[in-house]
Design brief:
Pnp Oxidase, Chain A, alpha+beta, 5 helices, globular
């Protein structure tokens, strides 16, 4: 068995310099996002979402990015889940993308608010029927007796919705992370990685700085 301490990889695909990076972090993210899609990375929209409760207890999990623009980065979930409860107490979060095939990482820190009901409805309607039923069936993050209990609820809902439209439940919808800090990380040889950080200023501009690896 290989010793954990001996697992390592030398990063050498690309570099990231202040002379080449775009002056807007959203444009830079879009550039990297397009390159991730062209590289056919499986689930390039998978990201770690880190939250913390009002008393500072952290929690992290993988969620899927469902949209982004200059207003922020959007994902959808159950508002009554553990992450939903933490965001209610402490509306701040950090998102992390790790595209290992490109030896890249993006870390986004920002303030969080719910998307509009219209935006949540619009996305919910695009989901497969089974996913819409699943969103209604699951009391996310709560203790349940067993899987059979959950499957029975799903089966009953499927029978119920054969003759009616599946509408978005009030406890399910979107969140938007509005960045105040975005860091782009490019792996480099000898662990001397490139790290470029954008920090939002009071006048709405972005300050660009290089961080030590």
């Amino acid at each position: 068995m290989k010793h954990i301490a001996g697992i390592r990889k030398e990063y050498k695909l690309e570099k990231l310099s202040e002379n080449e990076i775009l002056d807007d972090p959203f444009k830079q993210f879009h550039k990297w996002w397009d390159e991730a899609l062209r590289s056919e990375i499986e689930e390039a929209n998978a990201m770690t979402l880190a939250t913390a409760s009002g008393d500072g207890i952290p929690s992290a999990r993988i969620v899927l990015l469902k949209g982004f623009d200059e207003k922020g980065f959007v994902f959808f979930t159950n508002y009554e889940s553990y992450k939903g409860m933490q965001l209610l107490e402490n509306p701040r979060a950090c998102l992390v993308f790790f595209w290992k095939e490109l030896e890249r990482q993006v870390r986004i820190t920002g303030l969080v608010q719910k998307t509009s009901e219209h935006e949540s409805d619009e996305y919910f309607e695009t989901r497969p029927e089974s996913s819409r039923i699943g969103a209604i069936a699951s009391p996310q993050s709560r203790v349940i007796t067993d899987r059979k209990w959950l499957e029975e609820i799903e089966m009953n809902l499927k029978a119920q919705f054969t003759a009616m439209e599946i509408r978005r439940p009030a406890h399910w919808g979107g969140y938007r992370v509005k960045p105040v800090n975005i860091e782009f990380w490019q792996g480099r040889p000898n662990r001397l990685h490139d790290r470029i950080q954008y920090t939002l200023q009071e006048d709405g501009s972005w300050k660009i700085e290089r961080l030590a690896p």
